[in-house]
Structures are given as C-alpha cells and as structure tokens.
Write a structure and sequence with these properties.
Helix content is 0%, strand content 50%. It is mainly β. The strands form six sheets. Strands 1-6-5-3 form a four-stranded mixed beta sheet, with no helix packed on it. The protein has a three-stranded antiparallel beta sheet with strand order 8-9-10, with no helix packed on it. It has a three-stranded antiparallel beta sheet with strand order 11-12-14, with no helix packed on it. The N and C termini lie far apart (63 Å).
Length: 171
C-alpha cells in the first residue's frame, strides 16, 4: 500500500498498524521520514504466525512525503529607502507556507521591476519572488509586491540675476 503526506518539518509515519504483531514481525526499511522523498518498509510475519487473512507473505508499505508548495506563502520583507539610482532589493526576513517557517537558505530570491526609468511615475510596484531551490523540501514559488518611491530633491540656486531659484528634481 501507499501513504502520501506533505512535508511539515516533522517526522511522519506510514500509518501501518502492526501493533498487535510487533513481536512476530520482521520489519525492514523505513517506516517513517522527515524530508520529502520515498520511504519503503516491509513487514514479514515469522514462521509461526500469519496475517488475519491467513497469508504470511511480506507486506510492503510505501510512504511518500511530498514537497511543500510555496504557492500562496506569506513573504515578509525588511525596510527599504527611496530609489536613488540603485535597484531596491529589501531583505526577505521570513517566508511562511502552511504555518511552517521556511528555511531561507532553501530559496532562490529574485527581484523585478525595482528600478525607475526616466518615463516612470514617482511610485511603482516592484516584486520579490521566492522559489524553491532544487533538492529541498519545497516546490514552486510565491511573490510579494511592494511599492517603491522615486527620491525627490529641491535644488536651490542663485541665478545670474542674483535671485534665488528653486527647481524640484527627482532621481
């Protein structure tokens, strides 16, 4: 038989109920696992015992721990300043999926739309994307949108006429 579960950071078991047979069984393989993957256990009654259906053949139980999907994960970012010519990439401080804190080392973190061109308005929506690295307990990706602001400056200067002039400018 096969048992499917999803990664939750804790050891999970194949749910095979052999309590009444424990003293009479040879158990090989893995009855449990924590990380995403496949765990196979076999149960064989000794020569003096049989299953309740009268057979004594080896039973195989496969536990599959599926990767946890990052779809819909909650992403928290740190503070960031106004745009001053450099891409704004606030630190991702935490990611939570299915009430589980995700190990940030298991993620690729990318940013998009986080700079200004000369034709952009003074605010725009940037995006951070977290996606599962290969060979981790996670799959898929999630995004978080944040607003970036163009820095503005008031430039004051004295003209050739001796008068003080002000000209707002932005980066």
């Amino acid at each position: 038989s096969t048992v499917n579960k999803t990664y939750n950071g804790e050891e999970q078991y194949n749910d095979y109920n052999h309590d009444s047979y424990t003293d009479y069984l040879t158990i090989t393989g893995d009855e449990s696992g924590t990380n995403a993957g496949t765990y196979i256990a076999t149960y064989t009654p000794d020569e003096n015992h049989e299953w309740s259906d009268g057979t004594s053949s080896t039973e195989t139980v496969t536990l599959t721990v599926d990767k946890l999907s990052l779809a819909g994960a909650t992403i928290i970012i740190g503070s960031y300043s106004e745009y001053e010519g450099e891409a704004i990439e606030p630190e991702v401080t935490s990611v939570t999926a299915s009430s589980l804190d995700i190990d940030l080392e298991s993620l690729n973190i990318t940013y998009s739309n986080n700079t200004f061109s000369s034709t952009d308005n003074d605010t725009k929506t940037a995006t951070v994307t977290v996606s599962a690295k290969d060979n981790t307990n996670y799959t898929g990706s999630a995004t978080y949108d944040y607003t970036i602001y163009r820095a503005t400056y008031d430039i004051t200067y004295t003209g050739v006429d001796g008068a003080t002039h002000s000209n707002p400018s932005s980066y």
